[in-house]
Amino acid sequence: MYSYKDRLYLASGYLSGLSIIIIMVVVLAQIVGRMIGYIVPSAEDISGYCLAASIFFGLAYTFRDGGHIRVTLLIQNLPPKARFVQEFIVLSIGLLAASFICWYIWYMVWESYIFEELTQGYIPMPLWAVQLPLGLGSTGFLLAMLDAMATMFRGGLPNYTHHEDQVPMEDL
Amino acid sequence: MDLIVISLVLVVFMLLMLALGVWVSLSLVSVGVLGLMLIDNGQIGLLFGTTSWGASTNWTLTALPMFIWMGEVLFRTRLAADLFEGLTPWLSRLPGKLLHVNVLSCGIFAAVSGSSAATAATIGRMTLPELKKAGYSDRMSIGTLAGSGTLGLLIPPSIILIVYGVAAEVSISRLFIAGALPGLMLVFLFMGYIIVWALLNKDQVPQKDTIELSLAMKLKTLKKLLPILGLIGFVLGSIYGGFTTPTEAAALGVFGALLLAFFTGTLNLSTFSASLLGAVKSSCMIGLILVGAHFLTLAMGFLGIPRALAASIGNLDLTVFQLLAYLTLLFVILGCFLDGISVVVLTVSVVMPVIEQAGIDLLWFGIYIVLVVEMSQITPPVGFNLFVIQSLTGKNILYIARAALPFFLLILLALILIYIFPGIATYLPYSMTQH
After folding, report:
1. Whole domain around residue A88: which residue ranges?
2. Is residue A171 in a domain?
3. Which terminus of chain A is less hemmed in, N or C, by CB atoms within 10 Å?
4. How many Å apart are CA B246 and CA B162, to the nearest integer?
C-alpha cells in the first residue's frame, strides 16, 4: 500500500508526534509530582529538547505535505511552463537553504560531541545526544528537498504543490 | 556599505523571495544569512546553529504543540454539533436568532482551538447549511462566520499570542489574561451589530418562531455544553488563577480533550493519529518560522538596523497615535500577502525597539497587533478565513469579503477603543499579577 518512501515520510511525522506525546507525559508528570510533593527532575529541560526534536523530526513530513507556508498569491495563476521554471528556482533556493541548515546543525552536534559538553539542567546529559534529533531531522528535510527535485527532473511538479491550495483541514 | 543601502537590499531580497514562493521560514533564514554576509560576519553558520538550538528548546514554546493538538483532537469530536444544538434554544429570543449561534459557537470554539481558519471551517460546516435551511440571508450568515472566525486569534489560548510572547519575550500567561476582555468586547460588538441589523432588516430574518422549548428542555440541551465549557473553564482557570503555567494548562487541556473524545466515542486509532499528525504539521511549520525569525532577529541586531530605525523614527517626533497609524497601515499591507504569524515575527524582529522607545506597553502591543492581524484575515487578496469560507460555500471571494466588511469595521472600532482605553487590555493582567 505504501511505498518505502511514503513510510519514511510517515516515520518523520510519527517521530515528531511521539516527541509531542512525550512532552505531554512529562508535563503531566510534573503537575502530578508537584501535587504529591515529588519534583520530576529536569522536566522543563526534557520537554524543551522534545520540542526541538518534534520541530526538526517533522520537517520532512510537513514539507512533503505542503505544510510549510509560503506566498502562493502570485504564482498560482502562472501558465504551466512558467510555473515549472518558478518552482525549479524556488526548490533550488530551498535546497541551498536546507543544505546550509543541515550542515551547520550537524556541525553544532559534532562540536558538542568533541568538547564533551553537558546539558546545564538538574540531570547533566551529553549535549550531542539531545541535539542528535535536530541533525537527523534536518537531514530528512534535505532528503525531502532532493526527492522533490528528483520529481521535477522527471518532469512533474513536486508533491507539496498538490496540497497547499486546499484548506488546511482537508479531512473536515 | 551604508546601512540604508544594506536595509534596502535586504528588503528587496526578502520581497523577491516571498513573491517567488520561497517558504516563509527559509526566506527568513536566507535574509539573515545575506545580511550577515554583507557585513562580512565570519561565523554565520555557528550563529545559526546556536540560535536554532536556543529557539527550538524554549520551554515556554512547548505550550504551542500542546494547544494545537488539543484543538486538533476537539474538532474531530462532535463538538461543533453540540455547540449548535446547545446554544440554539437559548438565543431564539434575541433579534437575529441563529446568527448569534455563529458568533457564540465561534467564540467558544476559538477558546479551545486557537486557530482562526479551523474555527471558521468547523463551525461554518455546521451552521451555514442550518442557517440556509431556516431562510437567513446568505450574506449575513457568511459575514458573521467570517468575522467571528477571527475570534480564534484573540480569545485565549491563542496560538498567535504564544508566538508573539515567545518572540517579544512577554509573559504568555499575562498575554492570555490581556486577551480575555478585548475578545469578549469583540463578541459583544458583533452580537450588538447583529441585533441592530436584524431590527432594521426584518424582511431578511425568518420571522416564524422556532419552537419554544420548556425550561426543562432548555436545561437538558445545556448538558451538551457542559463538557466543553468545563474544559475551557478548567484550562483558562488554571492559568488565570496562577495554578499552572500555560504549558501545564495546555498539557492538561490535551489530556482533557482526549478524555472527552474517548467518552463521546469519537476517539479511535485513526482519529488519534490524524489529530497528532495535524498537530505535527502546524507546530513544525510554526517552529521552523520561529527558528528563522530568531536567526533573523540576531542578524538584524548585528547589522544594527532596528536600532537605527528606532533612532531615525525617534527623530521624526511622531506622536504615539501617528506611529500606530503608520504601523497599522504597514501591517494591513503586509497582511495582504502574509499570514498572521509571519507578520508578527517579522515585526518583532525589526520594529520592537521602535515600540519600546515610543513607550508603548509590550503587552498592550501584543493585543493590538493580534487585532490588526484579525482584520487582515478577512481582507482580500490573502485572508485565510475568506479562503476557508470560499471552499465551504463555493461563493466568490469578493462576495465573501463584502459580506465580511461590517465585521472588518467592527474590529477596527475595537482597535480604536483599545487605543483610547488601553485598560481594556492591560487592566486585568496588571491587577491580577501584582505579586
Report:
1. 4-165
2. no
3. N
4. 9
Count of structural domains within chain B: 1
Other CB atoms closer than 10 Å to residue A23's CB: what's the count? 28
Residues in chain A closer than 8 A to B284 (CB atoms): 16, 54-55, 58-59, 61-62, 67
**Residue B425 belongs to a domain:** yes
B168 by DSSP, 3-state: which? helix
Q: Return the closest-CA partner of residue B117 out of A26, A170, A35.
A: A170
What do you get for the CA distance between the two ends of chain A, in Å? Answer: 23
Residue B268 lies in a domain: yes
Q: How far is CA B322 from CA A117, B35, B208, B354, in A?
A: 50, 30, 50, 13
Tell me the pTM. Answer: 0.88
B35/B44 Cα distance (integer angstroms): 10
* Partners of residue A118 on adjacent β-strands: A126
pLDDT tens, B251-265? Answer: 999 999 999 899 888
Q: Which of A87, A43, A66 is nearest to B62 (CA)?
A: A43
Contact yes or no for A104 and B20 at CB 8 A = no
Measured between beta carbons, which residues in chain B are less than 8 angstroms from residue A103?
Answer: 45
> What CA–CA distance (Å, rounded) separates A57 from B273?
16
Q: Which residues have C-beta within 8 Å of that of residue B7, sequence separation ≥ 6? A: B305, B308
9-38 of A, contacting B, C-beta below 8 A: 13-14, 16-17, 20-21, 23-24, 27-28, 30-31
Q: Per residue in B98-129, is it b (16+ CB within 10 Å) or e — as a string?
A: bbbbbbbbbbbbbbbbbbbbbbbbbbbbbbbe
Q: Indicate the number of domains in chain A.
A: 1
Residue written as grid cell 504543540: B65
The answer, for A140 touching chain B at a CB cutoff of 8 Å, is no
ipTM metric:
0.93
Residue B9 lies in a domain: no
pLDDT class of B36 with cuts at 50, 70, 90:
very high
Residue B330 C-alpha cell reads as 504597514
